[in-house]
């Protein structure tokens, strides 16, 4: 298991007077509990591509899966830099999170089996995958590559008692 204890900074320019930084445990729990995430990748021509997806927090990283024919997969094959965001649309409550990192394909079948269990635990039986041959295979057909995004930087935007916190992680 990774032990990522980030450097934490409060940006007073975007925080209420007297605001305190959000602790990393709160942000990590928010990343783990979220149901929907937005993945931003870069198209070959440099334009952004954004799509919603589901993900699991496991062993210090966010994990998501996608088919090899999908735009996000093709984008990541050319440029692994990406951003995952989550939060809620309320203006004055909640915590929005932005995770920056590089997406790396997970190919180890044993690790994929553990991740498949995490998918079912979080999202239920509709999201049961068989892990084999370096990918997820849905029981109803279809192959998906699993990507891991270890955070390099995470931003937290607390609404209501506004604060902006940045967590920076040492390079692995």
UniProtKB/TrEMBL annotation:
Any Pfam family matching the protein: PNPOx_N
Zinc in keyword set: no
One MF term in the entry's GO annotations: oxidoreductase activity, acting on the CH-CH group of donors
Keywords for this protein: Oxidoreductase
Residue ranges constituting the Pyridoxamine 5'-phosphate oxidase N-terminal domain according to the UniProt record: 26-136
Highest taxon of the lineage: Bacteria
GO cellular component annotations of the record: cytosol
The protein's name: Pyridoxamine 5'-phosphate oxidase family protein
């Amino acid at each position: 298991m990774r032990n990522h204890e980030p450097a934490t900074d409060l940006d007073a320019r975007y925080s209420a007077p007297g605001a305190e930084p959000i602790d990393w445990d709160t942000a990590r729990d928010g990343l783990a509990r979220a149901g929907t995430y937005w993945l931003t990748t870069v198209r070959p021509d440099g334009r952004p591509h954004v799509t919603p997806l589901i993900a699991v927090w496991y062993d210090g990283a966010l994990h998501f899966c996608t088919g090899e024919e999908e735009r996000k997969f093709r984008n990541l094959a050319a440029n692994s830099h990406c951003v995952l965001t989550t939060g809620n649309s309320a203006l004055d409550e909640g915590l929005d999170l932005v995770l920056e990192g590089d997406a790396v394909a997970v190919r180890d079948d044993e690790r994929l089996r553990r991740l498949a269990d995490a998918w079912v635990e979080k999202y239920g039986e509709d999201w049961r995958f068989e892990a084999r041959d370096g990918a997820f295979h849905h029981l109803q057909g279809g192959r998906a590559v699993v990507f891991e995004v270890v955070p390099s930087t995470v931003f937290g935007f607390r609404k209501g008692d506004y604060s902006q916190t940045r967590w920076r992680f040492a390079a692995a």
